[in-house]
Amino acid sequence: MKSNFTILLALLLLISSFTSAQTTSEENVRFLKSKLFNVGSAEYKLEPMKNGRGIEFVNRSNDVIIQFRLGCVKIKHNRLTILSEENLENTRLDIPTDNKFQTISWSATHGFFPLDECKKGKLAVVEVHLENGKIWKLS
Q: Helix and strand tally (H, E) in the chain?
């Protein structure tokens, strides 16, 4: 009888910790989402990681991305203002295949985290350079 109680108690503690971790993860995802700005029609997006521990830059376009720039933006009176811009970053984000999008990830637990640079606005992709020579800019 005592061992059944111990197993039941351990099981309840395990379920409780899992539910608590899941809630925290969902809260982190919501928080990160509130700090990101994406243009609805743009194929270059910043998204929270599913575990809520970082963000991803996602290429949903039919072009290879070779450079990008993040920045901090603010919307006031339906007007977008770029508050600051980071350096242009070299990369290679290929064209998505089989509905698998190419991403670059930043975790809040490893060194540089772009969201830390954007205290007064929302983090956004402000510029993308494509392999075909085209440049997309947030304006």
A: 1, 9
Strands 135-137 and 44-48, bridge-based pairing? unpaired
Q: How far is CA 9 from the centre of its chain?
A: 37
DSSP assignment string, 30-83 = HHHHHTEE--TT-SEEEEE-TTSSEEEEEE-SSS-EEEEEEEEEEEETTEEEEE
Per residue of the chain (139 residues), give pLDDT as tens.
444 444 433 433 434 444 444 557 888 888 888 888 888 888 888 888 888 878 888 888 889 989 988 889 998 888 999 998 888 988 888 887 776 666 666 655 554 556 666 788 888 899 999 999 999 998 7
Q: What are residue 134's phi and psi, to 5 degrees? A: -75, 150
What's the start-to-end Cα distance of the chain, in Å? 69
Count Cβ atoms within 10 A of the Cβ of residue 128 and give its class: 0-12 exposed, 13-18 middle, 19 or more buried.
Answer: buried
| pTM for the structure as a whole | 0.74
Closest among 48, 73, 65 to 129, alpha carbons compared: 65
